[in-house]
Amino acid sequence: GERPPSSPADGVPRRQRQSMRVVCNPTCGAASRLASWSTTTWRDGARVSRRTKVIPRVRTREKEDQQGATTSGGLLGGGLPFSTSGALDAAASAVIEASKGTEDVRIDGPENDGKTLVSIDESREGVVDREDGLPATYDRIAIQRYWDGRPGELRKRWGEFVRLNVPFLTRIAGILLSGASLADESGPLSRQARKIMETLGPTYIKMGQMLSVRPDVLPEDARDELAVLQDSVKPFSSETAREVVERSLGVPIEDVFSSFSKEPIAAASLAQVHRATLASTGQEVAVKVQRPDIISTVSKDLYVLRRAAEVYQGIMDRFAPQQRTDYVGLLNEWAVGFYTELDFMNEAANQIKMRDLLRGAGVDDVYIPEVYLEHCSRYLLVTEWVEGKKLTECDPDEVNELVAIGQEAFLTQLLQLGFFHCDPHPGNLMKLHDESKGKLALIDFGLMASLNQEEMDTLVSSIVHLSNKDYAKLTEDFVKLDILPADCDRQKVLPLMDKALSPFIKGGGATKYKDEVLKIYEGAGGLQSMTSDFVTVMNDIPFSIPPYFALLGRAVATLEGIALVGDPNYRIVMESYPFVSRRLLSDDRPAFQQALTEILYSSPSSSSSSPSRGQRLAVLLNAAQGIVAETDSFVDLDTLPEGSLSTKDSVSLFFGEKASGLRNSLKPEIANAADFLLRQAIRRVSTQVEVSAPRLPFMPKPEDVPVPFFTVAEDGLPIPTLRPLREATEQIAPPLTQDEEIYALSMLDLLNEVSGLDLKSLYLDPFGTARDLVAGGLAAAASDLTGSDLLSVELEGREREIAEEYASEILGELRDRYIARLV
Fold it and tell me: Among residues 423, 457, 636, 638, which one is catalytic?
C-alpha cells in the first residue's frame, strides 16, 4: 500500500502508524488481509482515527484483566518484535471494527427455510411457550419478533462475546507469530478457553464438551481441561428445580413423586437431573429439569453466532471465492438443532420412537430407557432410572467393547432406520450394571436427525466406494450429496481426492491424518507440491459442505472421538465396512444391488483383467462377518483374508436369513448362467450327434433326421410332434452371442472355484470327459466328488428350506424361458 496524499496517518504516533502500514501492505499475510477486508474505508480520515482509539482501549482492558479469563498475557504491549506487534494490533483492530457493525446493522437470527435433518415432532410445530412467548421449535420470524421488543440485548451479548474472545485469539496469534508451539501452551490456553466458555454460558459449554472427546484435535491436557465441562457445570438450586417441576406438572410435587432428591445427580449446560420415585407405581425415575431462562440465553447466542458466521463467510468469499460452502447455512442447521434440544416434549417423542425402532431392528445390546410421557412437559422429562457407569469411567478394553456395540447401533440408525442420535458423547453412553436389559444404555435424545431413503443409499454407496478406493464413483456420490457440483472437473478432483482421503482411511484421527498427508508429499514435491494442490483446491474445485451435514458431522466426529480413546488407531470408515456389507447382503433395494454388482464384477484396481467372482463373493461374505483383507489400508476385494470362513459357513451364510439381498442380486445371474450353459450343452451334444452319426445312402443327413419334439399351445398344453434335429436344436437352444459365450465361460470358472471340481472340462468336451471316465477315471472322479467341500455341505432347518426355495425359483425361471421358446 502506497499512502495517498494528505493521509491522516501523518499525525498518528509512529507505533500506530506502523500498524496501519502493515495492514495496507498486500504482502504481509492473512492478518493484514483480514484487517483490510473488515472495512472499505480504511483510508478515510474518520475511520483511521476511530481505529487508533480502539487499540489503546484493548491494551488498557487487558492490563486490567490480566488475572481473569480475558487476559492475553500482555501480547499487544511488549516482548514481541515491532512488526509482530503491529500485525497483532491490526488483527485486533479489524475484529473489533467488524463487531462494531452490530451498532448500525440489525442482527438477524439463523434461517431455517432450507433443508434440515433435525427431527421435530409434528405436534410441536407452532407451539408457543406460555411463559416467555418463545416458540417451542425454531422459528426465526417468531424469535425475531420477540427480540425486536427488547432492543439492545443482542448487541450487548455480541459485545460480551467479542470482549472475551478477541484477547484469547490474539494470544494464540502471538504465540504463533513468535515461533513458539501451541502444544507447549495448551494447558494455559485450554484453561483460559474453558473459563471463557463457562462465562459465556450453555451454548459455548456445549461446544467445549464436544471438543473434549476429540483426542485427534486437542492434546491430552487440553481435553482434560475441557472435560471438566462434562460434569462440573454448576447446578441451580433445588428450590428452583422444584418450582420448575411443580409449575410444569400443575400440582404439588408430592402428588407425583413420593421422593425427589434434594441435590441433582448430574448437572449439564441445559438441564440437571434429579432422582425420584413415582408415587403411583414406586418406579425409580430420572427427572430432567430445564435451567430457568435457558431458552432466552440460547436464542440470543444463536443470533451472536450467526453474526460470527457471517464474518467468517465474508473472509472465505473474499479469499476462496471458488468454495461454495455455506458456513452461515451450517450454523443455521446447528442452531435449529440446538434450539430444538430445549423442547423436552420433542425429546420424549424422539426417545419413544428410537426405543421402538431399535427393538424392531433387533438391536438388543443397546437399551433405551422408558419414557413416562404423562409427566413430561417442555421443561420436564421423566424417564426410567438406569444404573451404570459412564464411558469416561471405563478402562480402554471396556471402551473398545462398548464402542463396537455403539457403532453397530449408530450405523443401524444412520444407514437402516434413517433416524439417528446426533450427540453420542461419553455422558450419553453408559455401561449397564444390569446386562439383562443390554450392555449399553443410550440417553439424551434432544437432538435427533432424519434421513430419507435416497440419502441413506448414497451414504452406503459412499462407504463402499471409499473403502474400495473407487474414487471415480465416489466423486459421483459426492455430487449426489451436494459436496461437489455436477460440472466439477473430474480430472482435477480425482488425484486430489486420493491425497486427501487415503490418509483418512488409515484412521487415527486428525493427528495421524496430518502425519500421513506429510508422508505423501515428502515423496511428491514436498511443500511446493502441497501448496500447489492447496491453491488448486481453493481456486479450481468448488466443493462445499452441505448445511445438513452439520448434524451428521457432529455425530460421526463425537463417536470417532470416543473410539480413539480406546483405540488410537481407530478407523471409522473401515470399521463400518462389515455393517455395510451386511446391508448389501440383506437388502434388495436397487441402489444396493448396483453396489453389489460393482463389488462382484468391477475390474481389480491393479489390472484390467476380469475379477474372480467366486473370490469376490467369498470376500464379501467374510466382510459381512467382520473378516476383511486389506491392501494399504483399503479393502482388498481379490484376496481372501486370513481366518476366512469355511465353505460350510459360507454356504450357511449365503442361505441364511440375512443374505436375501445377495441371493436376490445373484438370482438372475444364476438363471442366466444356467440357461447359457444348458443351451450351449444342448448345441454341443447336437453337433456331436451330427458329426458322429453314420451317413447312409438314400437316408437324410443326421441334422435333418426327425426327432421327437413338442411345442406348447396357447393354453399351455404340450403338442407332440417330430422336428428335424437341427431345427429342434435352434428352437430350444438358440446360439449364444459372443458376450453370452464369454459370460458362460466365466461362470464355469466360478463353479470350478466354488465346487473344487473341473466342471469346465465337462462343459467344453462332454464326450471326451465321458470317455476319460469310462477309461479309468471313475475312481478319481468319485474321490473328487466326495472330497468336495461344497458338495459335502449339509444344510438343516430354515437354511435348507431357503436353499430348496431358491433352487425352485431358479428352475421355475428356466422353465418359463424354455416354454416361451416352444410356444
Answer: 423
Contact 93, 55 (CB under 8 A): yes
C-alpha distances in Å from residue 74, one per residue of 14, 89, 93, 357: 20, 12, 16, 56
Question: Rounded distance, CA 649 to CA 659, Å?
Answer: 13
CA Rg, the chain, in Å? 35
Query: Would you state the pLDDT for residue 300?
Result: 85
Amino acid at position 346, single letter:
N
Residues 590, 661: Cα–Cα separation, whole Å = 10
- Residues 565, 212: Cα–Cα separation, whole Å: 11
CB 269 within 8 A of CB 205: yes
Residue 130 DSSP SS3: coil
**The pTM is what?**
0.68
23 in Cβ contact with 29 (< 8 Å): no
Sequence-distant (≥ 6) Cβ neighbours of residue 518 within 8 angstroms: none
β-pairing verdict for 630-631 and 448-450: unpaired
Region class of 799: left (phi > 0), else alpha (psi between -120 and 50), else beta: alpha
Q: Which three cell numbers stand for residue 219?
A: 492434546
Q: What is the per-residue pLDDT across 31-66, written as a single tens digit (0 to 9) for each?
A: 333 333 333 333 333 333 333 333 333 333 333 333
Task: Give residues with Cβ within 8 angstroms of 77, minimum separation 6.
Answer: 59, 62, 63, 85
Q: What cell numbers appear for 135 in the block?
A: 416458540
Q: What gap in Å lies between CA 454 and CA 591, rounded to an integer?
A: 9
Report pLDDT digits (tens) over 203-224.
Answer: 888 778 767 765 555 777 887 8
- pLDDT tens by residue, 304-331: 888 777 777 776 676 666 666 677 777 7
Q: At what angle do helices 549-566 and 509-522 cross, to 10 degrees?
A: 90
Q: How far is Cα 168 from Cα 189, in angstroms, rounded to an integer?
A: 8
Q: What percent of the chain shows pLDDT beyond 90?
A: 15
Residue 423 annotated as catalytic: yes
CA angle 412, 413, 416 (to 5 degrees): 60
Q: Are 332 and 139 in contact (CB under 8 A)?
A: no
Strands, E assignment, 229-308: 257-260, 266-267, 271-278, 284-290
DSSP state of 706: E
Terminal Cα distance for the chain, rounded: 89
Task: Look at residues 336, 402, 326 and name the one whose alpha carbon lies nearest to residue 367.
Answer: 402
* CA atoms within 13 A of residue 149's CA, in its CB half-sphere: 8
Strands 440-442 and 366-367: parallel
Nearest-angstrom CA–CA distance, 666 and 398: 40
- Please give the Cα distance from 44 to 50 (Å, whole number): 10
